[in-house]
Design brief:
This protein is of the alpha/beta class. The chain has two domains: 163 residues, 3-Layer(aba) Sandwich (Rossmann fold), CATH 3.40.50; 181 residues, Rossmann fold (3-Layer(aba) Sandwich), CATH 3.40.50.2000. The protein has 14 helices and twelve strands.
């Protein structure tokens, strides 16, 4: 087989004959994939690891993430080891930060990576590529304005800004650039809750007499307040769902602002819900939503978690781009407004933390979408 051609078990090659600088994965031993972003962004990299492992099973594939996002990829069957950066290093003083950074760099250098795949614009990725001595490096093209970045990597893939392609596909462009074309079945999100999380959720549900696929999971909050629907409308939706006979389980992050928002939403309800606000780890959240018959939420990490668990998703989108960040490869409905200014990506209208394109979405539209998803229509 010519260098750079990668074929599946049926000898079907996925390499363009015009790509002259494809990387021969059979000659590599260890790969590092870097994603220094938020929880949902990290989960959306999971198909990169799966695809690499499927096409080159011999590879040892590691990840470099922020420590608080690691749960998104721990237990991923294609990942050998996860290295983490603690955001608290900066607050611990200059000496402690230098010590921690040096220890991390030493660990990375000891792995002798052949290839570094950097999936964000964080400058640390360029430094890691240079300082680890990896032969190859792949990253997003930033343009001629950043010659140092361009010279840090051997392969650069283009990126069309705006709400045009899903983030998963943009991540996979890093593999396409080196000659690997992902199959459609390889592009699904991968999130493994683990035995402990599954057991914990099973106990919670059993204590409330709930079985699998007998309840709707709602996660109405987000750390980004401008992504949240109007609280009174979320309350009205829950009341309507309960009136239809649905059992509801609700969750939120342990953040004080999110807990306060959830309390205001739930206060007017006259029927009980399974309130797990602030009580679940990310793995437990995944185990919970895997048991739900439907997930309802906004553009947030829990929405992506539900998609990874193949639970049907109803997502309300405002200023963020649904084509770029919508539920991936799962039955879903998107609720958006027809405001010509969306998706603007702004922190609420005029920076006011409240997005009119979200707050004006009617409860009736959401209820209709719930019915369509549950009936499979």
């Amino acid at each position: 087989m010519p260098s750079g051609e990668f074929c599946d078990s049926h000898e079907i090659c996925y390499r363009s004959p015009v790509l002259t600088d494809a990387i021969d994965l059979s000659q590599l031993r260890r790969v590092l994939v870097i994603k220094l972003r938020h929880h949902g962004d990290v989960l959306l990299t999971s198909p990169v690891f799966s695809t690499l492992k499927n096409h080159a099973p011999h590879l040892k594939i590691d990840a470099l993430l922020y420590q608080d996002t690691a749960e998104m990829l721990t237990l991923h069957p294609a990942i050998e080891e996860i290295h983490t950066i603690d955001r608290a290093w900066k607050r611990a003083g200059a000496l402690t930060q230098v010590q921690q950074e040096w220890a991390l760099l030493s660990r990375l250098r000891s792995k002798r990576y052949d290839l570094v795949i950097h999936l964000s614009e964080h400058p640390r990725g360029a430094w890691v590529k240079r300082l680890t001595g990896a032969r190859y490096g792949v990253a997003r093209r930033l343009g001629n304005r950043n010659w140092w970045w361009q010279n840090s990597f051997t392969h650069l893939f283009p990126w069309a800004p705006g709400n045009t392609r899903h983030t998963v596909e943009i991540h996979l462009d890093a593999l396409r650039r080196i000659g690997l074309q992902p199959d459609l079945t390889e592009r699904r999100l991968v999130l493994e809750p683990g035995t402990d999380a599954k057991r914990h959720i099973s106990k919670i549900l059993a204590a409330r007499g709930l079985g699998a696929k007998t309840f709707i999971h709602l996660h109405p909050t987000s750390r980004w307040l401008f992504k949240c629907w109007a609280e009174d409308k979320m309350t009205a939706l829950m009341q309507a769902l309960q009136a239809q006979g649905h059992t509801l389980a609700v969750s939120s992050a342990p953040d004080a602002r999110e807990l306060a928002m959830l309390e205001r939403i739930l206060r007017p309800l006259t029927q009980p819900v399974v309130n797990l606000g602030g009580q679940l780890t990310l793995k437990q959240l995944a185990a919970l939503t895997a048991q739900a018959k439907l997930f309802i939420g906004v553009d947030s990490a829990p929405m992506h978690i539900a998609a990874a668990m193949q639970t049907p998703v109803l997502a309300l989108f405002g200023p963020s781009g649904d084509k770029e960040w919508g539920p991936w490869m799962v039955p879903h409905r998107l609720i958006t407004s027809d405001h010509p200014c969306r998706p603007c990506g702004q922190d609420g209208c005029g920076g006011g933390k409240i997005s009119e394109c979200l707050t004006t979405l009617p409860v009736e539209r959401v209820l209709q979408a719930v019915g369509g998803l549950l009936s499979g229509a």
